[in-house]
Structures are given as structure tokens and as C-alpha cells.
Amino acid sequence: MSRSRTASGWLAALAVAMTVAWGAGFLWFEQIAVRRAEPPPPHADGIVALTGGAGRVDLALRLLAENHADRLLVSGIGGGTDLATLGRLAGIDTADLAPRITLGRGAASTRGNAAETASWVAQNRIGSLIVVTAGWHMPRAMAELRRAMPEVRLFPQPVQPQAGTDADHSPGVKLEMQEFTKYLLAVSGLSAWLPHREAPSALHPGSGSEA
Q1: Looking at 104-108, 146-150, 181-185, which range is the least confident one?
Q2: Where are the alpha helices (DSSP H) in the chain?
Q3: What is each CA distance from 192 to 76, 138, 181, 187, 195, in whole angstroms?
Q4: Do 159 and 34 form a contact (C-beta atoms < 8 A)?
Q5: Which residues on neighbouring strands pair with residue 168, listed in sequence order?
Q6: What one-character DSSP code corresponds to residue 146?
Q7: CA quadruple 136, 141, 146, 149: dihedral positive or negative?
Q8: Using alpha carbons only, what angle is made at residue 38 by residues 149 and 160, rounded to the nearest 5 degrees?
Q9: CA angle, 61 then 136 then 20, to 5°
């Protein structure tokens, strides 16, 4: 057998093995994306809600209102959306909660969320953090947050789809596959080599709330 045939055989076997491994990993990813979370801790230093889907800010505000944490960062809130509007949409009066809430407007990606959260955590001396995002987004979010804040204890609280609502519907198989690929980049550390979508100066939210 020629060397070229041997090399081709090894490459084909490697491609098959990688495909099988990716498929098995994707099935695992789908399972953890819909897995029901543990109850939130009775109390943590802070909560972060990573915006980008329905139900996330609502859940984070409810957890804060129930005193599961001292402070809340809403990371990546876009445009001119104010706290009163967020509270009205969630059905929660934010008047008394406002001094404990920070609206972070700099993040435009999951890595940006992690950097914005790390800055806020350092400003407020937070050692434990409840993380709120969609179930399918949680694995990548946790990977990026752990890299940015290895010393902080993280408690995931995923928002799962609910029958009869539009809160964080499953993104579909194609987007789930894309998300799994992004998760692999994050957990392997390769995402750290990608350029940021945000200016570094934009990822330092203030310690107070925004009206």
C-alpha cells in the first residue's frame, strides 16, 4: 500500500472520529441546554442577566425582589431602554430596587458580557453570582464568565421555554449547532483569540442604576 493511500485512510478515519465526537457532544449539549436548574441559592452577592432573549430580565428582577442577592447587573442592555420600562414589562415595581440595579450598555457579545460583568464584580466586591440567561446559551456564558472571573462562585439560573409563551423559545437546530460550535471555542479558550466586538472602554458599567 502506498504512503498516500495510508495517509488518506488515516485522514478519513480521523474525519469520521471527529464527526462522531462532535455529534455526541452536540447531543450532550442539547441535554444540558434543557436540563432544569437547581434552585437558586438563598442569597448571593449579585445577579447578572445576560440580555438577548425574552424572560431573562424578568427572572433576574424577580430574584432580586425576592432578595436572592444584593445587586443586579443587566448586561448588554441596548439603546435607551430604561429601568422603569424593564420593570413594567416584567410586572415588577423597580422604584425601591433601583439603587441596587446597574444597566450595563457596553456588551454586544457573550465575551463582552463576561468582560462587563467582571468589571462590575470588581467594583462591587462580589464573590458569588447568580447567572441568568437562556438554557441554550448558559454553557457558553458560564465558560466565558469562569474565564473572566475564576475566583467568583457562579450559580446558573437558565430561562427555559414555557408552554404557551414566547419566552426564550428554542433557537432551532441550526442555531443550536452554531451555539455548540461557539461553546467549543469558548471552553477551549480559542474564543479569547477572536477580536472583541466592543471597545474596551465601553465595558465598565457604573456601580449605580440608570433611570
Answers
A1: 181-185
A2: 3-33, 56-65, 83-90, 110-124, 138-148, 173-188
A3: 19, 18, 14, 10, 8
A4: no
A5: none
A6: H
A7: negative
A8: 90
A9: 165
- Tell me the average pLDDT across 90-113: 93
Label residue 12 exposed, middle or buried (CB < 10 Å: 0-12, 13-18, 19+): exposed
> Which SS3 state, helix, strand or coil, does residue 81 take?
coil
Q: List pLDDT tens digits, range 60-90.
A: 999 999 999 999 999 998 777 889 999 998 8
- N- to C-terminal Cα distance for the chain? 74
The pLDDT of residue 173 is above 80: no
Q: How far is 189 from 193, CA to CA, in rounded Å?
A: 8
pLDDT of residue 103: 95
- Strand 69-75's sheet: what is its strand order? 101-104, 69-75, 44-50, 128-134, 153-159
Q: DSSP for 153-173?
A: EEEEEEE---TTS-TT----H
* Cα separations in angstroms, 13 against 7, 18, 103, 167: 10, 9, 50, 42
